[in-house]
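W.,

You were right to be curious about this one. When I first looked at the sequence I had no strong expectations either way, so I just let the prediction run and decided to look at it fresh. Below is the sequence, 240 residues in total, followed by the output.
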Amino acid sequence: MYSHALPYRYVLGTRVDAATCTSAASVVLHWARTKQSKFVCPADVSLVMTAHDDGLFRRVVNSADLVISDGLRLAWTLRAFGIDCAMPVRACDLLARVCEHAADERIPIGLLIEDAWRANGLRSRLESMHPQIDIVHSERLAQGSMTGREDERQIARINDSGARILLVGGERRNEKRWMVEHKGRVKCVMLGLGRSLDVLTGIEHQSGAPKAPRDFDIKANVRFVTLVVLQWLGLRPTWS
């Protein structure tokens, strides 16, 4: 299912890999240099709880080749489960590290973002941070299913561009579903951006931007802690 030597644990049924930003970037860049079709998923508490409640989505996440702990709570959970080296790996930091090395090595990058505004914002941000970055492809991540012919054409465009790293950003389920469905079909590493896309494009700081449902976040965190404690005590199965 995955091909690296990083330790991992199943947190409420979702596999989370223990990595540092450096080790995660090293894995991603190795896959890019060797032209492997892989996909990387950032996981936070909200994603783990969504996966816990939705077995199909959990299988999608667990199909990822690398699941990073995008937040302190997951890193602390991995430590509680016996991985002392676990560190939080923010998706924004991983992307910055990967793009820095990709720019230095001229590794081509593609963008597959759900809307043009965010795609343009991300491209501008990356080009300002890394002037030598080589963005060879950019197009829209479809919000629904594409016809077989449309899908094949999109795959051909991505592969023909020569991109070795594809940044995929959009609605959480759609983003992960697209990556798992295209693993082995696109000839590059797919890096899911998750909620970091809005951070990178500055949307979360705009007054007109939709606000995160804070009451849901609080409930999700309380429920997460409760269920993790039960798992740690052996009162819940590791895989559920």
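Here's what jumped out at me. The first strand starts at residue 8 and ends at 11. And, maybe more interesting for your project: The chain is about 50% helix and 15% strand.

Coffee later to discuss?

I.
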